[in-house]
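Pasting two entries for a bug report.
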Amino acid sequence: GILHEDLRLLLETSMPAKKKKALLGVADAKIGAAILEELGYQCQTGGVVAEILRGIRLHFHALVKGLTAQSASKAQLGLGHSYSRAKVKFNVNRVDNMIIQSISLLDQLDKDINTFSMRVREWYGYHFPELIKIVSENYTYCRLAKFIGNRKELSEESLEGLEEIVMDSAKAQAILEASRSSMGMDISPLDLINIESFSSRVISLSEYRKGLQEYLRSKMSQVAPSLSALIGEVVGARLISHAGSLTNLAKYPASTVQILGAEKALFRALKTRGNTPKYGLIFHSTFIGRAAAKNKGRISRYLANKCTIASRIDCFSEVPTSVFGDKLREQVEERLAFYETGEPPRKNLDVMKEAVVEASEVVAEVKRKQEKKEKKKKKREKEKKREKQRLETLAAAAEENSVLETEENDIEPKKKKKKKQQQEVEAESEQELEAASEPEENGLEEEALPKKKRKLMVEAAIQEEKKKKKKKKKEKARDSEED
Protein backbone atom coordinates (compact mmCIF):
# COMPACT_ATOMS: atom_id res chain seq x y z
CA GLY A 1 0.00 0.00 0.00
CA ILE A 2 2.82 2.41 0.87
CA LEU A 3 4.61 1.66 -2.40
CA HIS A 4 1.35 2.09 -4.25
CA GLU A 5 0.82 5.51 -2.64
CA ASP A 6 4.40 6.53 -3.51
CA LEU A 7 3.62 5.59 -7.10
CA ARG A 8 0.52 7.75 -6.84
CA LEU A 9 2.58 10.70 -5.55
CA LEU A 10 5.05 10.39 -8.44
CA LEU A 11 2.23 10.19 -10.98
CA GLU A 12 0.44 13.21 -9.52
CA THR A 13 3.21 15.59 -10.60
CA SER A 14 3.84 14.50 -14.17
CA MET A 15 0.63 13.17 -15.82
CA PRO A 16 -2.86 14.32 -16.79
CA ALA A 17 -5.82 13.18 -14.64
CA LYS A 18 -7.21 10.57 -17.06
CA LYS A 19 -3.86 8.84 -17.48
CA LYS A 20 -3.31 8.83 -13.70
CA LYS A 21 -6.61 7.12 -13.02
CA ALA A 22 -6.04 4.54 -15.76
CA LEU A 23 -2.52 3.72 -14.59
CA LEU A 24 -3.52 3.53 -10.92
CA GLY A 25 -6.41 1.25 -11.82
CA VAL A 26 -4.02 -1.05 -13.71
CA ALA A 27 -1.58 -0.96 -10.74
CA ASP A 28 -4.40 -1.88 -8.31
CA ALA A 29 -5.50 -4.79 -10.49
CA LYS A 30 -1.92 -6.08 -10.84
CA ILE A 31 -1.23 -5.90 -7.08
CA GLY A 32 -4.53 -7.68 -6.37
CA ALA A 33 -3.74 -10.42 -8.90
CA ALA A 34 -0.24 -10.91 -7.43
CA ILE A 35 -1.64 -11.27 -3.86
CA LEU A 36 -4.27 -13.76 -5.10
CA GLU A 37 -1.58 -15.86 -6.84
CA GLU A 38 0.92 -15.86 -3.96
CA LEU A 39 -1.28 -15.93 -0.86
CA GLY A 40 -4.70 -17.01 -2.14
CA TYR A 41 -6.57 -13.99 -0.73
CA GLN A 42 -9.23 -12.24 -2.78
CA CYS A 43 -8.52 -8.49 -3.02
CA GLN A 44 -10.84 -5.61 -3.78
CA THR A 45 -9.77 -2.55 -5.75
CA GLY A 46 -11.64 0.71 -6.05
CA GLY A 47 -12.08 4.22 -4.72
CA VAL A 48 -12.74 3.14 -1.11
CA VAL A 49 -9.57 1.02 -1.00
CA ALA A 50 -7.54 3.93 -2.34
CA GLU A 51 -8.92 6.26 0.36
CA ILE A 52 -8.20 3.69 3.11
CA LEU A 53 -4.65 3.28 1.82
CA ARG A 54 -4.22 7.04 1.73
CA GLY A 55 -5.43 7.31 5.33
CA ILE A 56 -3.04 4.53 6.45
CA ARG A 57 -0.19 6.26 4.71
CA LEU A 58 -1.09 9.61 6.27
CA HIS A 59 -1.11 8.20 9.82
CA PHE A 60 1.50 5.47 9.27
CA HIS A 61 4.03 7.00 11.68
CA ALA A 62 1.36 6.84 14.45
CA LEU A 63 0.46 3.20 13.68
CA VAL A 64 4.02 1.81 13.60
CA LYS A 65 6.24 2.00 16.68
CA GLY A 66 9.59 3.68 16.27
CA LEU A 67 8.59 5.47 13.03
CA THR A 68 8.29 9.23 13.15
CA ALA A 69 6.79 11.64 10.64
CA GLN A 70 10.28 12.98 9.92
CA SER A 71 11.71 9.53 9.06
CA ALA A 72 8.66 8.80 6.85
CA SER A 73 9.20 12.05 4.94
CA LYS A 74 12.90 11.14 4.56
CA ALA A 75 11.89 7.77 3.10
CA GLN A 76 9.61 9.51 0.58
CA LEU A 77 12.41 11.89 -0.36
CA GLY A 78 14.81 8.97 -0.83
CA LEU A 79 12.31 7.23 -3.12
CA GLY A 80 11.95 10.40 -5.17
CA HIS A 81 15.74 10.73 -5.47
CA SER A 82 16.18 7.10 -6.54
CA TYR A 83 13.40 7.49 -9.14
CA SER A 84 15.06 10.63 -10.56
CA ARG A 85 18.48 8.92 -10.56
CA ALA A 86 17.09 5.95 -12.48
CA LYS A 87 15.57 8.33 -15.04
CA VAL A 88 18.86 10.20 -15.47
CA LYS A 89 20.81 6.94 -15.83
CA PHE A 90 18.39 5.79 -18.51
CA ASN A 91 18.96 9.02 -20.47
CA VAL A 92 22.76 8.75 -20.10
CA ASN A 93 22.80 5.34 -21.75
CA ARG A 94 21.25 6.68 -24.95
CA VAL A 95 23.08 10.05 -24.95
CA ASP A 96 20.17 11.60 -26.88
CA ASN A 97 20.05 14.60 -24.52
CA MET A 98 23.35 15.75 -26.10
CA ILE A 99 21.67 15.70 -29.52
CA ILE A 100 18.71 17.71 -28.17
CA GLN A 101 21.00 20.40 -26.75
CA SER A 102 23.22 20.60 -29.84
CA ILE A 103 20.30 20.95 -32.32
CA SER A 104 18.71 23.64 -30.13
CA LEU A 105 22.01 25.51 -30.02
CA LEU A 106 22.41 25.10 -33.78
CA ASP A 107 19.00 26.70 -34.43
CA GLN A 108 19.79 29.53 -32.02
CA LEU A 109 23.15 30.13 -33.69
CA ASP A 110 21.49 30.32 -37.12
CA LYS A 111 19.17 33.06 -35.87
CA ASP A 112 21.94 34.98 -34.09
CA ILE A 113 24.41 34.80 -37.01
CA ASN A 114 21.71 36.03 -39.39
CA THR A 115 20.85 38.97 -37.09
CA PHE A 116 24.48 39.93 -36.46
CA SER A 117 25.47 39.71 -40.13
CA MET A 118 22.55 42.00 -41.06
CA ARG A 119 23.86 44.45 -38.48
CA VAL A 120 27.35 44.29 -40.09
CA ARG A 121 25.78 44.89 -43.53
CA GLU A 122 23.95 47.99 -42.32
CA TRP A 123 26.94 49.31 -40.39
CA TYR A 124 29.56 48.78 -43.11
CA GLY A 125 27.03 49.71 -45.85
CA TYR A 126 27.38 53.39 -44.93
CA HIS A 127 31.02 53.24 -46.04
CA PHE A 128 30.83 50.70 -48.92
CA PRO A 129 27.18 50.19 -50.06
CA GLU A 130 28.06 48.49 -53.39
CA LEU A 131 29.52 45.41 -51.60
CA ILE A 132 26.02 44.25 -50.50
CA LYS A 133 24.93 43.73 -54.16
CA ILE A 134 28.16 41.93 -55.14
CA VAL A 135 28.32 39.50 -52.15
CA SER A 136 25.09 37.97 -50.85
CA GLU A 137 26.44 35.37 -48.37
CA ASN A 138 26.65 36.60 -44.75
CA TYR A 139 29.87 34.79 -43.76
CA THR A 140 31.74 35.97 -46.89
CA TYR A 141 30.48 39.54 -46.43
CA CYS A 142 31.78 39.67 -42.82
CA ARG A 143 35.17 38.32 -43.92
CA LEU A 144 35.37 40.93 -46.68
CA ALA A 145 34.39 43.76 -44.31
CA LYS A 146 37.21 42.71 -41.97
CA PHE A 147 39.72 42.31 -44.82
CA ILE A 148 38.95 45.53 -46.77
CA GLY A 149 38.51 47.98 -43.87
CA ASN A 150 38.84 51.40 -45.51
CA ARG A 151 37.89 51.02 -49.21
CA LYS A 152 40.31 53.79 -50.25
CA GLU A 153 43.27 51.65 -49.20
CA LEU A 154 42.17 48.80 -51.53
CA SER A 155 44.62 48.29 -54.43
CA GLU A 156 45.77 45.74 -57.02
CA GLU A 157 48.03 44.12 -54.41
CA SER A 158 45.03 43.06 -52.29
CA LEU A 159 43.38 41.30 -55.29
CA GLU A 160 44.82 37.91 -54.31
CA GLY A 161 43.39 38.19 -50.77
CA LEU A 162 39.96 39.08 -52.22
CA GLU A 163 40.08 36.05 -54.55
CA GLU A 164 40.89 33.75 -51.60
CA ILE A 165 37.84 34.99 -49.69
CA VAL A 166 35.36 35.18 -52.59
CA MET A 167 36.76 32.15 -54.54
CA ASP A 168 36.00 33.97 -57.81
CA SER A 169 38.36 36.26 -59.76
CA ALA A 170 35.52 38.12 -61.54
CA LYS A 171 33.86 39.01 -58.24
CA ALA A 172 37.19 40.12 -56.74
CA GLN A 173 37.76 42.41 -59.75
CA ALA A 174 34.21 43.78 -59.40
CA ILE A 175 34.80 44.60 -55.72
CA LEU A 176 38.05 46.41 -56.59
CA GLU A 177 36.36 48.49 -59.31
CA ALA A 178 33.37 49.28 -57.05
CA SER A 179 35.70 50.49 -54.29
CA ARG A 180 37.25 53.06 -56.67
CA SER A 181 33.88 54.58 -57.66
CA SER A 182 31.88 54.04 -54.47
CA MET A 183 29.09 56.38 -53.30
CA GLY A 184 29.73 55.61 -49.61
CA MET A 185 30.65 58.14 -46.97
CA ASP A 186 34.10 58.43 -45.42
CA ILE A 187 34.63 56.58 -42.14
CA SER A 188 36.85 57.29 -39.16
CA PRO A 189 39.51 54.77 -37.96
CA LEU A 190 37.68 54.28 -34.61
CA ASP A 191 34.46 53.26 -36.41
CA LEU A 192 36.43 50.88 -38.61
CA ILE A 193 38.02 49.24 -35.54
CA ASN A 194 34.56 48.61 -34.05
CA ILE A 195 33.16 47.23 -37.32
CA GLU A 196 36.18 44.91 -37.76
CA SER A 197 35.98 43.59 -34.18
CA PHE A 198 32.23 42.90 -34.52
CA SER A 199 32.64 41.19 -37.90
CA SER A 200 35.43 39.00 -36.43
CA ARG A 201 32.96 37.90 -33.71
CA VAL A 202 30.40 36.96 -36.36
CA ILE A 203 33.09 35.01 -38.28
CA SER A 204 34.09 33.07 -35.14
CA LEU A 205 30.42 32.24 -34.45
CA SER A 206 30.00 30.94 -38.02
CA GLU A 207 33.11 28.76 -37.68
CA TYR A 208 31.88 27.41 -34.33
CA ARG A 209 28.55 26.56 -36.01
CA LYS A 210 30.41 24.41 -38.57
CA GLY A 211 32.20 22.54 -35.77
CA LEU A 212 28.91 22.04 -33.92
CA GLN A 213 27.32 20.60 -37.06
CA GLU A 214 30.16 18.07 -37.34
CA TYR A 215 29.70 17.15 -33.66
CA LEU A 216 25.94 16.65 -34.25
CA ARG A 217 26.66 14.46 -37.28
CA SER A 218 29.02 12.23 -35.29
CA LYS A 219 26.56 11.97 -32.36
CA MET A 220 23.67 11.06 -34.65
CA SER A 221 25.77 8.36 -36.33
CA GLN A 222 26.42 6.86 -32.86
CA VAL A 223 22.94 7.21 -31.30
CA ALA A 224 20.53 7.02 -34.25
CA PRO A 225 22.43 5.86 -37.37
CA SER A 226 19.40 4.41 -39.19
CA LEU A 227 17.27 7.54 -38.69
CA SER A 228 20.11 9.84 -39.82
CA ALA A 229 20.79 7.63 -42.89
CA LEU A 230 17.09 7.76 -43.82
CA ILE A 231 16.12 11.39 -43.26
CA GLY A 232 19.39 13.24 -42.53
CA GLU A 233 21.16 14.26 -39.33
CA VAL A 234 19.51 17.66 -38.84
CA VAL A 235 15.89 16.55 -39.45
CA GLY A 236 16.42 13.40 -37.37
CA ALA A 237 17.86 15.46 -34.51
CA ARG A 238 14.90 17.87 -34.72
CA LEU A 239 12.48 14.93 -34.47
CA ILE A 240 14.30 13.57 -31.39
CA SER A 241 14.39 17.03 -29.82
CA HIS A 242 10.67 17.63 -30.43
CA ALA A 243 9.72 14.20 -29.06
CA GLY A 244 11.89 14.72 -25.95
CA SER A 245 14.08 11.64 -26.43
CA LEU A 246 14.73 8.80 -28.86
CA THR A 247 12.66 6.46 -26.68
CA ASN A 248 9.65 8.79 -26.85
CA LEU A 249 10.03 9.05 -30.63
CA ALA A 250 10.16 5.24 -30.89
CA LYS A 251 6.89 5.02 -28.91
CA TYR A 252 5.02 7.38 -31.26
CA PRO A 253 2.88 5.94 -34.08
CA ALA A 254 3.61 6.92 -37.70
CA SER A 255 0.59 9.27 -37.81
CA THR A 256 2.05 11.29 -34.90
CA VAL A 257 5.56 11.41 -36.43
CA GLN A 258 4.06 12.65 -39.71
CA ILE A 259 2.61 15.83 -38.14
CA LEU A 260 5.26 16.26 -35.40
CA GLY A 261 6.07 19.97 -35.31
CA ALA A 262 2.74 21.07 -36.83
CA GLU A 263 0.65 20.88 -33.65
CA LYS A 264 -0.69 24.43 -33.94
CA ALA A 265 -1.94 23.82 -37.48
CA LEU A 266 -3.49 20.50 -36.41
CA PHE A 267 -5.43 21.98 -33.47
CA ARG A 268 -6.51 24.96 -35.56
CA ALA A 269 -7.79 22.59 -38.25
CA LEU A 270 -9.65 20.50 -35.68
CA LYS A 271 -11.16 23.63 -34.16
CA THR A 272 -12.29 25.12 -37.47
CA ARG A 273 -13.07 21.69 -39.00
CA GLY A 274 -10.69 22.40 -41.88
CA ASN A 275 -8.04 20.26 -43.57
CA THR A 276 -5.46 18.77 -41.19
CA PRO A 277 -1.73 19.25 -42.01
CA LYS A 278 0.00 16.62 -44.14
CA TYR A 279 3.50 17.03 -42.67
CA GLY A 280 5.43 18.70 -39.87
CA LEU A 281 9.20 18.56 -39.34
CA ILE A 282 9.68 15.86 -42.00
CA PHE A 283 8.81 18.48 -44.66
CA HIS A 284 12.49 19.60 -44.46
CA SER A 285 13.65 16.24 -45.86
CA THR A 286 14.58 16.07 -49.57
CA PHE A 287 11.92 13.46 -50.44
CA ILE A 288 8.87 15.72 -49.96
CA GLY A 289 10.52 18.53 -51.91
CA ARG A 290 11.22 16.19 -54.84
CA ALA A 291 7.66 14.79 -54.95
CA ALA A 292 4.94 16.30 -57.09
CA ALA A 293 2.27 18.48 -55.44
CA LYS A 294 -0.41 15.75 -55.62
CA ASN A 295 1.96 13.11 -54.13
CA LYS A 296 3.37 15.18 -51.21
CA GLY A 297 0.80 13.85 -48.72
CA ARG A 298 1.29 10.24 -49.77
CA ILE A 299 5.10 10.38 -49.64
CA SER A 300 5.02 12.15 -46.26
CA ARG A 301 2.82 9.35 -44.83
CA TYR A 302 5.15 6.70 -46.26
CA LEU A 303 8.25 8.53 -44.98
CA ALA A 304 6.77 8.89 -41.48
CA ASN A 305 6.13 5.14 -41.44
CA LYS A 306 9.77 4.44 -42.31
CA CYS A 307 10.98 7.00 -39.73
CA THR A 308 9.11 5.20 -36.93
CA ILE A 309 10.67 1.85 -37.98
CA ALA A 310 14.17 3.41 -38.09
CA SER A 311 13.77 5.10 -34.67
CA ARG A 312 12.59 1.83 -33.08
CA ILE A 313 15.52 -0.08 -34.57
CA ASP A 314 17.96 2.55 -33.27
CA CYS A 315 16.36 2.65 -29.82
CA PHE A 316 16.17 -1.08 -29.12
CA SER A 317 19.11 -2.57 -31.02
CA GLU A 318 22.21 -3.55 -29.01
CA VAL A 319 24.72 -2.62 -31.74
CA PRO A 320 23.27 0.29 -33.78
CA THR A 321 24.07 0.18 -37.51
CA SER A 322 23.05 2.30 -40.52
CA VAL A 323 22.18 -0.75 -42.69
CA PHE A 324 18.46 -0.59 -41.97
CA GLY A 325 18.41 3.18 -42.59
CA ASP A 326 20.05 2.75 -46.00
CA LYS A 327 17.55 0.05 -46.98
CA LEU A 328 14.60 2.16 -45.82
CA ARG A 329 15.95 5.10 -47.83
CA GLU A 330 16.12 2.89 -50.92
CA GLN A 331 12.47 1.95 -50.34
CA VAL A 332 11.43 5.61 -50.18
CA GLU A 333 13.38 6.31 -53.40
CA GLU A 334 11.59 3.38 -55.09
CA ARG A 335 8.22 4.70 -53.89
CA LEU A 336 9.02 8.14 -55.35
CA ALA A 337 9.93 6.49 -58.66
CA PHE A 338 6.68 4.50 -58.50
CA TYR A 339 4.61 7.71 -58.16
CA GLU A 340 6.41 9.28 -61.14
CA THR A 341 6.94 6.36 -63.56
CA GLY A 342 4.63 3.60 -62.24
CA GLU A 343 7.51 1.12 -61.75
CA PRO A 344 6.50 -1.29 -58.92
CA PRO A 345 8.78 -1.15 -55.84
CA ARG A 346 10.20 -4.17 -54.01
CA LYS A 347 8.21 -5.78 -51.22
CA ASN A 348 9.00 -4.71 -47.68
CA LEU A 349 9.59 -8.34 -46.55
CA ASP A 350 12.31 -8.94 -49.18
CA VAL A 351 14.09 -5.67 -48.36
CA MET A 352 14.03 -6.36 -44.61
CA LYS A 353 15.42 -9.89 -45.12
CA GLU A 354 18.36 -8.43 -47.05
CA ALA A 355 18.84 -5.79 -44.36
CA VAL A 356 18.86 -8.42 -41.57
CA VAL A 357 21.55 -10.46 -43.38
CA GLU A 358 23.74 -7.38 -43.97
CA ALA A 359 23.18 -6.10 -40.43
CA SER A 360 24.18 -9.46 -38.91
CA GLU A 361 27.45 -9.34 -40.92
CA VAL A 362 28.14 -5.76 -39.80
CA VAL A 363 27.36 -6.62 -36.15
CA ALA A 364 29.66 -9.66 -36.31
CA GLU A 365 32.46 -7.49 -37.70
CA VAL A 366 31.89 -4.85 -34.99
CA LYS A 367 31.99 -7.54 -32.31
CA ARG A 368 35.24 -8.90 -33.78
CA LYS A 369 36.78 -5.44 -33.63
CA GLN A 370 35.61 -5.01 -30.04
CA GLU A 371 37.10 -8.38 -29.09
CA LYS A 372 40.41 -7.38 -30.70
CA LYS A 373 40.38 -4.11 -28.78
CA GLU A 374 39.65 -5.95 -25.53
CA LYS A 375 42.50 -8.38 -26.22
CA LYS A 376 44.86 -5.49 -26.89
CA LYS A 377 43.73 -3.82 -23.67
CA LYS A 378 44.30 -7.02 -21.71
CA LYS A 379 47.77 -7.38 -23.24
CA ARG A 380 48.62 -3.81 -22.33
CA GLU A 381 47.37 -4.34 -18.79
CA LYS A 382 49.46 -7.52 -18.47
CA GLU A 383 52.54 -5.71 -19.79
CA LYS A 384 51.94 -2.89 -17.34
CA LYS A 385 51.63 -5.37 -14.45
CA ARG A 386 54.86 -7.09 -15.50
CA GLU A 387 56.62 -3.76 -15.73
CA LYS A 388 55.37 -2.81 -12.28
CA GLN A 389 56.53 -6.14 -10.81
CA ARG A 390 59.93 -5.74 -12.47
CA LEU A 391 60.29 -2.21 -11.09
CA GLU A 392 59.21 -3.37 -7.64
CA THR A 393 61.78 -6.20 -7.66
CA LEU A 394 64.49 -3.80 -8.81
CA ALA A 395 63.53 -1.35 -6.08
CA ALA A 396 63.59 -4.12 -3.45
CA ALA A 397 67.02 -5.30 -4.66
CA ALA A 398 68.34 -1.75 -4.58
CA GLU A 399 67.07 -1.34 -1.00
CA GLU A 400 68.76 -4.60 0.06
CA ASN A 401 72.04 -3.49 -1.52
CA SER A 402 71.86 -0.12 0.24
CA VAL A 403 71.25 -1.89 3.60
CA LEU A 404 74.22 -4.20 3.05
CA GLU A 405 76.44 -1.26 2.10
CA THR A 406 75.46 0.62 5.25
CA GLU A 407 76.20 -2.48 7.36
CA GLU A 408 79.62 -2.88 5.71
CA ASN A 409 80.33 0.80 6.27
CA ASP A 410 79.45 0.34 9.95
CA ILE A 411 81.68 -2.76 10.26
CA GLU A 412 84.75 -1.20 8.53
CA PRO A 413 85.35 1.57 11.09
CA LYS A 414 85.09 -1.01 13.90
CA LYS A 415 87.80 -3.13 12.24
CA LYS A 416 89.96 -0.04 11.74
CA LYS A 417 89.59 0.86 15.42
CA LYS A 418 90.66 -2.65 16.49
CA LYS A 419 93.68 -2.48 14.17
CA LYS A 420 94.64 0.93 15.56
CA GLN A 421 94.38 -0.38 19.14
CA GLN A 422 96.61 -3.38 18.31
CA GLN A 423 99.16 -1.11 16.60
CA GLU A 424 99.24 1.22 19.63
CA VAL A 425 99.78 -1.72 22.01
CA GLU A 426 102.60 -3.07 19.85
CA ALA A 427 104.22 0.38 19.69
CA GLU A 428 104.05 0.75 23.50
CA SER A 429 105.60 -2.69 24.08
CA GLU A 430 108.40 -1.93 21.61
CA GLN A 431 109.15 1.33 23.42
CA GLU A 432 109.37 -0.49 26.75
CA LEU A 433 111.74 -3.06 25.29
CA GLU A 434 113.90 -0.35 23.79
CA ALA A 435 113.99 1.43 27.12
CA ALA A 436 115.00 -1.81 28.80
CA SER A 437 117.74 -2.43 26.20
CA GLU A 438 119.21 1.09 26.64
CA PRO A 439 122.37 1.42 28.91
CA GLU A 440 121.67 1.87 32.60
CA GLU A 441 122.55 4.92 34.69
CA ASN A 442 125.81 3.48 35.91
CA GLY A 443 127.07 3.52 32.28
CA LEU A 444 127.29 -0.26 31.81
CA GLU A 445 126.02 -1.48 28.42
CA GLU A 446 123.96 -4.62 28.20
CA GLU A 447 124.19 -6.89 25.33
CA ALA A 448 121.75 -6.23 22.49
CA LEU A 449 118.80 -8.71 22.42
CA PRO A 450 118.23 -10.75 19.30
CA LYS A 451 115.17 -10.11 17.04
CA LYS A 452 113.38 -13.39 17.86
CA LYS A 453 113.48 -12.71 21.56
CA ARG A 454 112.15 -9.20 20.99
CA LYS A 455 109.12 -10.54 19.08
CA LEU A 456 108.39 -13.08 21.79
CA MET A 457 108.63 -10.39 24.41
CA VAL A 458 106.21 -8.13 22.50
CA GLU A 459 103.67 -10.93 21.99
CA ALA A 460 103.83 -11.81 25.69
CA ALA A 461 103.26 -8.19 26.64
CA ILE A 462 100.23 -7.94 24.28
CA GLN A 463 98.68 -11.10 25.76
CA GLU A 464 99.15 -9.79 29.28
CA GLU A 465 97.41 -6.53 28.41
CA LYS A 466 94.53 -8.45 26.84
CA LYS A 467 94.17 -10.52 29.99
CA LYS A 468 94.17 -7.39 32.09
CA LYS A 469 91.40 -5.86 29.91
CA LYS A 470 89.31 -9.03 30.19
CA LYS A 471 89.67 -9.00 33.94
CA LYS A 472 88.62 -5.35 34.07
CA LYS A 473 85.53 -6.12 31.95
CA LYS A 474 84.58 -9.03 34.21
CA GLU A 475 84.98 -6.86 37.29
CA LYS A 476 82.83 -4.14 35.77
CA ALA A 477 80.13 -6.73 34.90
CA ARG A 478 80.15 -8.06 38.47
CA ASP A 479 79.90 -4.56 39.93
CA SER A 480 76.93 -3.81 37.68
CA GLU A 481 75.23 -7.07 38.68
CA GLU A 482 75.77 -6.32 42.38
CA ASP A 483 74.35 -2.80 41.93
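Entry 2 (this is the one that rendered wrong in the viewer):
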Amino acid sequence: MFRALSRLSTAGFRSLVRTRTGYSAPLASRCYSHGKVETDEEFDSRWVTYFSKPDIDAWELRKGMNTLIGYDLVPEPKILDSALRACRRLNDLASAIRILEAVK
Protein backbone atom coordinates (compact mmCIF):
# COMPACT_ATOMS: atom_id res chain seq x y z
CA MET A 1 0.00 0.00 0.00
CA PHE A 2 2.79 2.38 0.82
CA ARG A 3 4.41 1.57 -2.51
CA ALA A 4 1.23 2.49 -4.42
CA LEU A 5 0.94 5.71 -2.46
CA SER A 6 4.55 6.65 -3.12
CA ARG A 7 4.17 5.84 -6.82
CA LEU A 8 1.08 8.08 -7.05
CA SER A 9 2.75 10.88 -5.14
CA THR A 10 5.87 10.63 -7.31
CA ALA A 11 3.81 10.74 -10.50
CA GLY A 12 1.85 13.69 -9.16
CA PHE A 13 5.06 15.48 -8.22
CA ARG A 14 6.52 14.89 -11.69
CA SER A 15 3.45 16.35 -13.35
CA LEU A 16 3.82 19.47 -11.23
CA VAL A 17 7.52 19.82 -11.99
CA ARG A 18 7.11 19.22 -15.70
CA THR A 19 6.63 22.50 -17.50
CA ARG A 20 5.96 23.24 -21.09
CA THR A 21 8.78 25.27 -22.52
CA GLY A 22 8.23 27.42 -25.55
CA TYR A 23 4.45 27.48 -25.19
CA SER A 24 2.81 30.88 -25.05
CA ALA A 25 -0.87 31.64 -25.25
CA PRO A 26 -1.93 33.47 -28.39
CA LEU A 27 -3.06 37.02 -27.92
CA ALA A 28 -6.76 37.40 -28.43
CA SER A 29 -7.75 40.29 -30.61
CA ARG A 30 -11.48 40.72 -30.92
CA CYS A 31 -13.60 43.19 -32.76
CA TYR A 32 -17.02 43.32 -31.17
CA SER A 33 -18.54 45.91 -33.47
CA HIS A 34 -18.84 45.46 -37.19
CA GLY A 35 -21.31 48.24 -37.81
CA LYS A 36 -20.55 51.73 -38.99
CA VAL A 37 -19.64 54.37 -36.45
CA GLU A 38 -22.34 56.95 -35.91
CA THR A 39 -21.28 60.59 -35.81
CA ASP A 40 -22.60 63.02 -33.23
CA GLU A 41 -24.76 64.80 -35.79
CA GLU A 42 -26.32 61.53 -36.94
CA PHE A 43 -26.97 60.55 -33.31
CA ASP A 44 -28.65 63.89 -32.61
CA SER A 45 -30.77 63.80 -35.75
CA ARG A 46 -31.87 60.22 -35.03
CA TRP A 47 -33.19 61.20 -31.60
CA VAL A 48 -34.74 64.44 -32.85
CA THR A 49 -36.67 62.52 -35.51
CA TYR A 50 -37.64 59.89 -32.91
CA PHE A 51 -39.20 62.49 -30.62
CA SER A 52 -40.66 64.47 -33.54
CA LYS A 53 -42.87 61.61 -34.72
CA PRO A 54 -46.45 62.89 -34.82
CA ASP A 55 -47.89 59.57 -33.62
CA ILE A 56 -45.57 59.09 -30.62
CA ASP A 57 -47.33 57.92 -27.48
CA ALA A 58 -46.39 58.31 -23.81
CA TRP A 59 -44.83 54.86 -23.59
CA GLU A 60 -42.52 55.52 -26.57
CA LEU A 61 -41.58 58.88 -25.08
CA ARG A 62 -40.60 57.31 -21.75
CA LYS A 63 -38.79 54.45 -23.49
CA GLY A 64 -36.82 56.87 -25.64
CA MET A 65 -35.81 59.02 -22.69
CA ASN A 66 -34.82 55.99 -20.60
CA THR A 67 -32.68 54.72 -23.46
CA LEU A 68 -31.15 58.14 -24.00
CA ILE A 69 -30.36 58.65 -20.31
CA GLY A 70 -29.05 55.07 -20.15
CA TYR A 71 -26.26 56.10 -22.52
CA ASP A 72 -24.89 58.10 -19.56
CA LEU A 73 -24.71 61.39 -21.39
CA VAL A 74 -26.42 64.73 -21.27
CA PRO A 75 -28.56 65.11 -24.41
CA GLU A 76 -28.02 68.07 -26.71
CA PRO A 77 -30.50 70.94 -26.35
CA LYS A 78 -32.12 70.16 -29.71
CA ILE A 79 -32.90 66.62 -28.50
CA LEU A 80 -34.36 67.96 -25.28
CA ASP A 81 -36.36 70.51 -27.25
CA SER A 82 -37.94 67.82 -29.42
CA ALA A 83 -38.62 65.62 -26.36
CA LEU A 84 -40.29 68.48 -24.48
CA ARG A 85 -42.33 69.35 -27.56
CA ALA A 86 -43.46 65.72 -27.67
CA CYS A 87 -44.55 66.08 -24.05
CA ARG A 88 -46.51 69.17 -25.04
CA ARG A 89 -48.19 67.34 -27.94
CA LEU A 90 -49.17 64.57 -25.53
CA ASN A 91 -50.21 67.08 -22.84
CA ASP A 92 -48.01 65.17 -20.39
CA LEU A 93 -46.62 67.49 -17.73
CA ALA A 94 -45.28 64.63 -15.59
CA SER A 95 -43.01 63.37 -18.39
CA ALA A 96 -41.74 66.88 -19.03
CA ILE A 97 -40.83 67.26 -15.35
CA ARG A 98 -39.11 63.85 -15.37
CA ILE A 99 -37.07 64.86 -18.42
CA LEU A 100 -35.99 68.12 -16.79
CA GLU A 101 -35.12 66.31 -13.54
CA ALA A 102 -33.06 63.72 -15.43
CA VAL A 103 -31.10 66.46 -17.15
CA LYS A 104 -30.63 68.38 -13.92
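Dev reply: Rendering is fixed now. As a check, the viewer should reflect this: The chain has a mean pLDDT of 83.
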